[in-house]
User: Fold this.
Amino acid sequence: MLQKELAKRLRARYNTKMDGSGWLEVSSDGIPLCRIKYKAQYLSNADQNLSDEYRSKIADIQDKISTVREYAGLYEHAPQMKAANVSDYRRLAVFGDTVLAVTYSQRKEALTFFSFCSSKNCVCFHISFGMIAGTAFSCLKCSSGGSSFRI
Assistant:
């Protein structure tokens, strides 16, 4: 799952492809930048003659690896929810009557974060991370209309 999340996040700026031995190869303008294995094992291009532009791209990839490793790790270690309708969700945190949960969609190949609450007058958030910063979040009032906001 971690490689799929990374590939999705890196695809917008870099060329990505899986090689035959399970490594995600990342390149830019035909120049190999790094290879990433499951659990984010990482090998970067050690060429001393790389320009600052490509070194900056490698640093950007390392930042994305750290971010994805953090939220994918939270997902992997969170306990399954026990309620019948949400048993495919994992519980990340509980705040009073609100539970922050996450699920992995095989169809979308994405982690989707939700909050559930037990109060009838509450505001429920449906949060989908395609990318963390700049992602549009949807705010839905329990089962009626809603609005959206951006961070």
In short: The radius of gyration is 18 Å. The mean pLDDT is 78.
